[in-house]
Every structure is written in C-alpha cells, then in structure tokens.
Amino acid sequence: MLMEPAVLVAEDDDLTAQLIVETLREAGYRVIRGRDGDEALELARDEQPKLIVLDLNMPGRRGYEVLRCALRQPRRPRVLVLTALGRADIEREIRALGADDFMRKPFAPHDLARRAVSLLAADGARPEGAEASSGLAR
Amino acid sequence: MILLSVSVALLAVAVVLLTVGALTHHLLTARRRRRFASRLSAAATFLAPHVVSREGLADAAFEARRRFGPQPVAAALRRWRSDVDGAAGEDISRVLVEIGELGSLSRAAGSRRNEQRLEAIRGLAEYGSAVSQKILVDAADADAMPEVRRAAREGLLSIHSSAAVRAATRTYMKDSRRGIGWDRGFFAHLAEAAPAHLRELIGSGQLTHDEERLALEALGDASDGGAVPLARAWLPSSDPELRATAARVLGKLRDADSAPAILALLRDPVWFVRVAAAKALEGLPADGPVSEALSRALSDPEWWVRARAAHSLSCCGRLGIEALLDAVGGSDRYARDAALAALGRRELPPESKERLAACFITLEAMVAGESEQRAG
Amino acid sequence: MDDRLIGGIESFYVSYFSLAAAVYVVFGVIALIDLVRYRRRVWRADLRALRSGIGYLPISILVPAHNEQKTIVATVRSILTLDYPEAEIIVIDDGSTDATLQRLRDAYALVPVRYAWPARLRTRPVARAYCSLEHPSLIVLEKSRGGKSDALNAGINVSQYPLFCSLDADSLLQSDALVRIARAFAEDERIVAAGGIIRVLNAATVRHGQVIETHAPRSLLLLAQSQEYLRGFLTGRTALGKLGWLLILSGAFTLFRKDAVIEAGGYRTDTVTEDMELIVRLRRRARERHLPQRIIFLPDPVCWTQIPPDLGSLLSQRDRWHRGLIETIWMHRAMFLNPRYGAIGLAALPFYVLFEALGPIIELGGYAFTIVLVLLERLDLAFALTFLGLALATGLLLSVLALLLDDLLFRRYETARDIAKLMAGSVLEFFGYRQLLTLRRALAVLSVLDRGRGWGHIRRTAIRPAPGRAA
C-alpha cells in the first residue's frame, strides 16, 4: 500500500495539466490526473486522494458537481480550486461550497506548490492516523 | 448552347478538382494534426520540469527544438505563457525570445497582410513581456486594422508596467473606434489590469460623462477598493444617473461605511436611483437599519424597486429572510408578491423552507378567497 | 406549338437557372473568403476573457415547450451545464397536455411563486410561475396555449437580462456556444440579432448532455438533409451575412437584444415563421428610423437539433417554412424594390422572392415544360442534358465547398468515409429528394395564393402587441 499522499488533478487542458502535475510532482507528491469530470470522480473514488486540484471549467460534469461529489467522500479530501473564471463573487461562492483554497489562472507554479503543501500539512498535523507521509517534508 | 455546354464542363471539372482537393486535404491534415499533437505533448513533457523548477529552461528549449521541431516547442511555451504568472512566466518569455520567437513574430507584425499581422500581434500580446512592448505600442498607435490595435492594447495591458499601461490608455483615447462597446471592453480590461490608471483617467477629465460612468462601473466589477472615494463623491450629485452609478458601484465594492448614504438614496425621488440603492444593499452587511429600510422599500410604488429590495433582503441572511417571510404573511399585496418572488429564487435553510411552505398553503387559501370575493 | 414560343421559354429557363447558378457560386466564393478569414479572427483570449466575465452581457435563455415530456428534463439539464458567466433559464410551458410540467417539477424541485412582472408585450395569460429551489437561475412559466411566438413573448416579459436567446426544446447547445455568440454583442452595440450554426443531432453521439462526436447519417433522408444544412449555413448564410442581406436566422438558436425586440413589438403570433418575420421587421424599423443596426451570422457557435427523420414530417416542415417565407415577404412587401430600405429592399428581398420563394414554382414549371416537349417530340436532348448537368454541377460545387469549409473550420467529420458518404448524399439529393421538396414548396405557394383573399382581413385583425409597461 502506497504511503505517499495522492493528489488528483482535474483539468481538461493537456498542457496546463502537465504543468500542474509537474509542479506537484516536484513538491514530492504522487499525482494522478482526470481529463474530465467523470474521470476525476472515478479516480477520486478509487484512489482516495488527500488533495484535489480542480478546474471548474471542464466539459461534461461541471466543476461544481465534481466539487460537491468530492466533498461527500468518506475521507473528505482537501480541495484547491484553480480556475480561469474571474467573476468577482466566484471566490465567495466556491469557499461557501466547501473548497479549502482558491487560485486564479494565470497562476505562479511555486505559489500552487506552496498552497498544496500547506493544505496537506494541515491534514498531516491532525493526530488522526499513522499516515506519516514522506513527501510532506519539502 | 455552346456557352452552356462549356460552362457545364468547366463546372464539372471544378467540382472534381475540389472534391479531390477536399479529400486529400482532409487526409493529409488529419495526419499532420495528429503528428503535431503528439509532438506538442512530448515537448511539453520534456519541458515541464524545467518550467517548474526554473532551471535550465533555455537549454532544454533548444534541445527540444532539435528533437521535436521548432513549432511544437514554441506552441507549448506560448500556451504556458498565458497560463502562468510571475517569475516563471517571465522565464518563459525570456526563453521565447532566445529561441527566436520574438524575431519571427516581429517580422510577421510588419507584414502587409492583415491576418498575418493580427496573428503576430496576438502572439506577442500573449507573451505579456516587456520585450514586445515597443512593437505593441506601435501597433496600438498606428495600425490600420482596428482589431490589431485592440489586440496590441490588450497585450500592453497584460504587461505589468506603468509605461505599457499608459501607452495602452493613450492609444485608446485617440482611437477612432471608441464607442460604448469598445469602451466597455477596454475599461473592463484596464480595471482588471491596472485600476489605479483607470481611476487616474476618470480624474483627468478626458472622458465624457457617459464614459466616466462606464469606467466607474468597470472598477466596481473589478472589485477595486480604490474606487470608493470616487463613487462616494458622486453620491450627492444632482445628476440621477451619477447617483445611481455611485450606489451600484459602492454596493459591488461592499463599502459598509457608505450604508447610511445609500439608505438615504432609497428615498430618492428618481425611481432608478432607488433601484440602484436597493441593489447596492445586497452586498452590504445586513443589520437592523438596512433590513428595516429594505422592508419599507417593499411597498415602494415602483415594481422594480420592490423586486430589487426583496432580492437584497433575501441576500441579507437570516434577518432578511425573516423580514421577507413577515411580508409574505402581511397584508400588503405588492410586498407579498415581491417577497415571494425573491424567496423563490434562494436556496433557503430548511426551517425557512418549512415556514415558506406553510405560508404557501395559507396563501393559496387566501388567494382563492380573494378571487372568490372578487368574482362573487 | 410555335418554335419561337418554345425558344422563348427555353431562353427564359436558361437565363433563370444560369443566373441562379451564378449567384450561388458567387455566394460560395464570398463564404469561402470570409470563413477562412474568420477562423483566424476568433481568439482564444477573447473567449477566455468572456468566460471569466470581463465585459460580458448576461443572457436570458428562453425555452418554449409544448408536450415535450420526453426530452424537457434532459434539455434543461444540458442548459444548466452551459458555460456562461451569468444566465437565467426561462422554460415556458405553452399549455402542454402531457407530463411536461410534472417532470420539471419533480426534477428541479419547483415551487409556485406569485410572481409579478411588467407585461410589456401582450400575451395569453400566464397561469403561474415556478422557481426552482435548487437552481436559482431556473424559472418555469405555465401558460395557456398560444403558440411558440406567444410563449416567447411571455418569456421576454419575465426576463431580466439585456440579451435573450430563443432555444427550441429539442435542441442541444454546445457548451461554448453562448460564449461565442455573445462575444459579438459585447463589442458592437449595433448588433441586435445573431445566429449560429445548426447541426444535425440525429446523427450525433451525446454524453452527459454534450455532443462528443458525429458521423454521416445512415438514412438517405437524413444524409440529404445534413448536406443541405451544411451547404445552406456555411455557404449561404455566411455570404448573406457578409453582404448584410440576412433575413433568416434559425429559430432554433438566435440571440437577440431584448430592447430592440420589445421596441419592435415582440414576436407576431399570426405567422408560421415568427423568427423570420421578426428579423425582417427589425430591419425595417431600423431603416425607417435611421438606426445603425447589424444582424449577423457566426459560424462557430453550434446548436444541435433534431431534424425530421421521415418524409412526412420533413415535407410538412418545408411546407411551413415556405408558407412562412411567402407570408413574411407579403407582409413587408412595402420594402420590395424600395430604395428607402437600401440593400434589403433592393437586393435581399428580390433575391428571396426570385430564387427562394418563386424558385419552386419556376422549377416545377420547368419539369412540366420538359414533359410537354417530350410529348411533342420537340425535346432537344443535348439541351436537356446540359441543363441537368448545370444544375447538378452547381449543386455539387456548393456541397463540396461546404464540406471543405467544414473540414477547414470544424473538422466535425473525422473519417474520409463520412465525407465520401456526404458527397454521395449530395449527388443523390438531385434525384428525388430535391424534386419532392420542390413539389411540396410549389404546392405551398399555391395554397398561400388560394388563401390570399382572406389575407387583408387577417392582417387587420392581427393582434398588435401593446407597447409600454402594464405594471
């Protein structure tokens, strides 16, 4: 059984996804990628990631639905929403729905890594389980 | 007759040629597209680590060009440039210059063909980096095609330098195509990129009255807190349009300190000012005076004011929902209608839903009674 | 029969069809140039900016529905997943006698609301309005039957946004269709109406409310229609749009500026093709008041719609379209060849009258004439064959052009086999399909003329929508 925390990236644009995946890999996580809403949800169920980096603007099932479904998982993962949608009130809406953090595109890769680390560190700090994840050191 | 036959023959030949051309084009480009897509993906995989780590990107880019060809590498880098910000973004711009992309785009930017210039300027605009600034300024100033000018300005706006933004503004002000549509677009982009400059522009007096209003609205949409003093200054204006705009913008900016002034506007003689005030209160923190004033506005003679007041109340949290439910049970028919409409559009907490459902039952009975009375 | 008479008729037909061929070929060329240019103009950053909400205009999506219980829930669901920063959906249940409303109520948790709104357009009474507890942007109106125009007018009354889009209940919008079509409105305030392209849903694969791929249909009838749509939209509408001669945008998917439509009086309820009549009326008012106005066609927003799969419904659809065309032209006949109406009056209307409205009658006459000649043994075979060849060649030319453009811009049909099938379809179109349609349309002309006596009467008692607010 893998002890590294998994991060799920739900992003339909291949090139952007590659960058996000690479950023998170550099930070030391095991990354899996979903190309659309359905794939992302399937992966979320199978792999039980600790963090989901979610783009709201995906074809098929909308990002909101993915957000809602993901948050209903038994071990609720952290969710970082990364989106190009720039409406002023969207951040409020998304946080109200339960997302843990919010970033706009264009984004700075090191910023993304930093936030991912802090979200996952917050989890690791909880005295819940023995999941001493090696990747969190960075 | 001869003419007819000849034209038929010519048409037939044209058809055959076009068919063959179409099918071959399709087959060839399909393969070409697939090849390009796979190369693009491979180049991206190769370069991604360097982009993220910010080490050795230039060398990697040259190596990638050798392996996968110049176009896929350039395409990947350009796509990333529009997704990525900050230091990593600047890296990408620098590398794009080093691999010669700037050169080829700059040459194309001087082309005589409109479409080529447009594509080149757009490519340069996506860099958003200072190296393309000079070309963009020239294009924004003097290019014959309005779309090129627009694209150049947007490129300038995405360069986070004061000089670039000033150039964009300057070229816009003297552009012959200025008008409501372009104003709205330009101000929206400027408000996002450099709100301070837009504020300056408003204060400079170069804009017409209508343009000033559009500009202020754009600042409100972009949530620019610095616009608050400007908007406040317009609140007591004698022009109702300005008062309305000021109220709307202060609402969007959620300026709680303006609440008393906006509450006063709820009693303004001009109807659309009252509407704007009611809408503005949607964003402000709900407290006693606000929900009281909005509840009173539910009985306003103007339908739009009632509707807006009801909607704002529904956004005021529990206090607002309570006020609306009270109105539903009340005797003022107009207030009741407005309240119901607003309640219908919110996701309500369970206990409010129950109370609302109960209201509906009594309401149906009440309405049935009323219409019976009227009929009988 | 007199030789000269025969010669005269022959010359007439030659000139008519040569002129028609020339006009359509010119359209094809204009379309080719325009579309190739257009492809380069659509900028990713523009679309991205619009999606992110910079400089957009919010849209009210109106969906008139009558007895659509089978598809309405899926339709609304697919609209809810559309990619647009701010939009509301107004479904107007136009006196459905089946479970349409019930299905909606169950699926979207509708609650009845005592909703008051300013009735700027007069419509049949709306019994009640429903809001959805789960989707604040969904409103459903329950009204007495009044027809599609009436339903749309009711929707316009209730809508709160400056743009509205009329969408058929059996159509599926591509997720970025609204973003693409609204782009034009944000930048150019002269635009009052814009239409996108309609594609055939019958042959498409749908997953989660989105079309993921399409093939050339199997059935001959669908194949011929697909080809016809492709040709009509990519070559015909594009060229007409470029020239400023557009009088028809598809009723299945058009975006309008609400103020302009209300000012013109809304949709008319006494015509069969209300969308065309509205466009013509908008143009007319703009001319009469010297307002700068543009009505455009954009090839990139896509709407997928169900087309008639069997001959019966196809023929009645074409019959309705043709009757509507003639009715509309007749209603606005004051514009015909009237310099006051500029290009519309002097060029667009005559084009529609000569080639679209009267075309079937003339063509039918041509067939009849040919038969007469055969009976009289005066038929010049060479002439007849060249004639047929000309018609076939022109049609094929346009079809191939359309396929080429489609490939260049959209690459919808991925395999060469599909393209070959479509090509075959456009050839077979000429042997049977076209003739049937021509016959039906010619009959439509006759039926319209037959009722002509009653027209003046109908026009005078037509329901004129009341201007101004009623609140």
Task: Give the helix/strand layout.
The complex is a heterotrimer of chains A (138), B (376) and C (471).
Chain A: E1 6-10, H1 14-26, E2 30-34, H2 37-47, E3 51-54, H3 63-71, E4 78-83, H4 90-97, E5 101-104, H5 109-124
Parallel strand pairs in A: 1-2, 1-3, 3-4, 4-5
Chain B: H1 2-53, H2 57-68, H3 70-83, H4 86-98, H5 101-109, H6 114-127, H7 133-142, H8 146-158, H9 162-173, H10 180-193, H11 195-204, H12 209-221, H13 228-234, H14 240-252, H15 259-265, H16 271-280, H17 288-297, H18 303-314, H19 317-329, H20 333-344, H21 350-375
Helix pairs in contact in B: 1-2, 1-3, 2-3, 3-4, 5-6, 6-8, 7-8, 7-9, 8-9, 10-11, 10-12, 11-12, 12-14, 13-14, 14-16, 16-18, 17-18, 17-19, 18-19, 18-20, 19-20, 19-21
Chain C: H1 3-41, H2 44-51, E1 59-65, H3 72-80, E2 87-94, H4 100-108, E3 110-113, E4 126-132, E5 138-143, H5 148-158, E6 163-167, E7 171-173, H6 177-187, E8 191-200, E9 204-207, E10 210-214, H7 220-243, E11 253-257, H8 258-264, H9 274-288, E12 294-305, H10 311-331, H11 342-357, H12 359-375, H13 381-409, H14 416-450, H15 455-460
Parallel strand pairs in C: 1-2, 1-6, 2-5, 8-12
Antiparallel strand pairs in C: 3-4, 4-5, 6-11, 7-12, 8-11, 9-10
Helix pairs in contact in C: 1-7, 1-13, 7-13, 7-14, 9-10, 10-14, 12-14, 13-14
Percent of residues in beta strands of chain C: 15-25%
Helix content of chain C: 40-55%
CA radius of gyration of chain C is 23 Å
Order of helices and strands of chain C: HHEHEHEEEHEEHEEEHEHHEHHHHHH
Quaternary organization: heterotrimer
Largest interface: B-C, 57 and 53 residues
Number of strands of chain B: 0
Which regions of chain C contain 5 or more consecutive residues with pLDDT less than 50?
453-471
Distance between the termini of chain B: 83 Å
Structural class of chain C: alpha/beta
Strand content of chain B: under 5%
The beta-strand count of chain C equals: 12
Mean pLDDT of chain C: 84
C-alpha Rg of chain B, in Å?
30 Å
Task: Tell me the major beta sheet of chain B.
Answer: none
Low-confidence stretches of chain B: none
Task: Please state the overall shape of chain C, judged from the principal axes of the Cα atoms.
Answer: globular
